[in-house]
Design a protein that fits this description.
By secondary structure, the protein is mostly helical. The protein has five helices and no strands. Helix 1 runs antiparallel to helix 2 and helix 3 runs antiparallel to helix 5. It starts with a helix and ends with a helix.
Amino acid sequence: MHKEMDVAKRAKVIEWLKTEVVDHVSRLFKALWEGSTGRVADSLASLIVSSYILGRRLGVSYLDLDDAIIDKLKRHKQEGHQLEDWYQDISALEEHMRKR
């Protein structure tokens, strides 16, 4: 019985984290609409934190997620992503991730 409760609790936490991600996206959109830089930063930070924790609950370590992000950035650069071509955002984020 104890193992079944643990599985149910894990599933409930994952569902809760999924709703948190959606809530943070909603708050981000509202902050964008209002033009509040502070609320935009707070919403983005909350979204990133919830995403990392959701990943961990799903079996993706923080380090693996960081590595996946760096790999994604490399692919975007190789494929000529528009944000890289226009602003070098991809390179800047990749450099930031590597320096951490």
